[in-house]
Amino acid sequence: MSEERDTEKLRRTQSEREEQEEDMAQRAEDEHETAQHERRADKARYLRDKLEERAESERERPNTTH
């Protein structure tokens, strides 16, 4: 269960990072800065998606602790 909590915490962190980077991209003053924040938002989104897959796997995995 600890792994599930850790995964959820990491997923939330990436979701927050994605939102922050998208906001900064909206407020950026030049194209280079906008592109940089968009790339960071994309990376955070990718990591969040992978963490969601991991969480799903953890939920489906039978509890094998004795």
Kindly list the characteristics that best describe this protein.
66 residues, mainly alpha, 85% helix, elongated
Give structural notes.
There is one protein chain. This protein is mainly α. It has one domain (2-60). It has helices at residues 2-27, 31-60. It is elongated.
The radius of gyration computed from the alpha-carbon positions, rounded to a whole number of angstroms, is 16 Å
Distance between the termini: 14 Å
Mean pLDDT: 91
Q: What order do the SSEs take from the amino end to the carboxyl end, as H and E?
A: HH
Q: Specify the overall morphology.
A: elongated
* Computed structural class: mainly alpha
Tally of alpha and pi helices = 2
Summed up:
This protein is mainly α and 66 residues long. The protein has helices spanning 2-27, 31-60. It has one domain.
Q: What is the topology?
A:
Elements: H1 2-27, H2 31-60
